[in-house]
């Protein structure tokens, strides 16, 4: 979910520190490296950020249904028209792997005109690997 504490707007020193560390890691000591930081206006309208949120909840052993419902609730505040979340694997540590999904609103996957953001994310839990897929219906052109 980014570096909210590291990159506060009023602290350019931290950004320069990050830039120097990245230059050292990439061996760009002699060259100039520009880092641009942009604030996302509605972060929970982006499926990658939402997948990281759900993954963090699952790592902390929160029930998968609670995590999905909380993510859907956050997405509704970002003015989206619909969301579908799918989790596959050994959900809640059960012996048999299964696929669970929840849809809220409209998600027209067959319509080509529909602008749908998609993310596929893998998360390692103590039970094994879970796959998270998120479709967010933004707008129809």
User: How many alpha or pi helices?
Assistant: 3
Major sheet details: 4 strands, antiparallel
Q: Which H/E pattern describes the elements?
A: HHHEEEE
Radius of gyration: 18 Å
The neighbouring-strand order within the major sheet is 2-1-4-3
SSE-based structural type: alpha+beta
| Cα separation of the termini | 29 Å
Indicate the mean pLDDT. Answer: 87
The best one-word shape is globular
Summarize the amount of helix as a percent range.
25-40%
How many extended strands? 4
Percent in strands: 25-35%
User: What ranges have pLDDT less than 50 throughout 5 or more consecutive residues?
Assistant: none
Structural summary, described in words:
With 141 residues, this protein is α+β, with helices and mostly antiparallel strands. 28% of the residues lie in helices and 28% in strands. The chain has helices at residues 12-25, 47-59, 64-76, and strands spanning 82-89, 98-105, 114-124, 129-140. Strands 2-1-4-3 form a 4-stranded antiparallel sheet, covered by helices on one side. Helix 2 runs antiparallel to helix 3 (64-76). The chain starts with 11 loop residues before the first helix and ends with a strand.
């Amino acid at each position: 979910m980014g570096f909210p504490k590291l990159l506060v707007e009023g602290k350019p020193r931290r950004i320069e520190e990050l830039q120097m560390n990245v230059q050292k890691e990439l061996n760009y000591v002699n060259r100039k490296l520009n880092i641009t930081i942009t604030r996302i206006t509605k972060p929970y309208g982006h499926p990658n950020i939402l997948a990281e949120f759900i993954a963090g909840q699952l790592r902390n052993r929160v029930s998968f249904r609670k995590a999905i419902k909380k993510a859907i609730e956050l997405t509704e505040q970002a003015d989206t028209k619909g969301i579908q979340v799918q989790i596959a694997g050994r959900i809640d540590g059960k012996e048999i792997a299964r696929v669970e999904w929840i849809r809220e609103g409209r998600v027209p996957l067959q319509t080509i005109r529909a602008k749908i953001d998609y993310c596929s994310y893998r998360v390692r839990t103590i039970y094994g690997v879970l796959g998270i897929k998120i479709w967010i219906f933004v707008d129809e052109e």
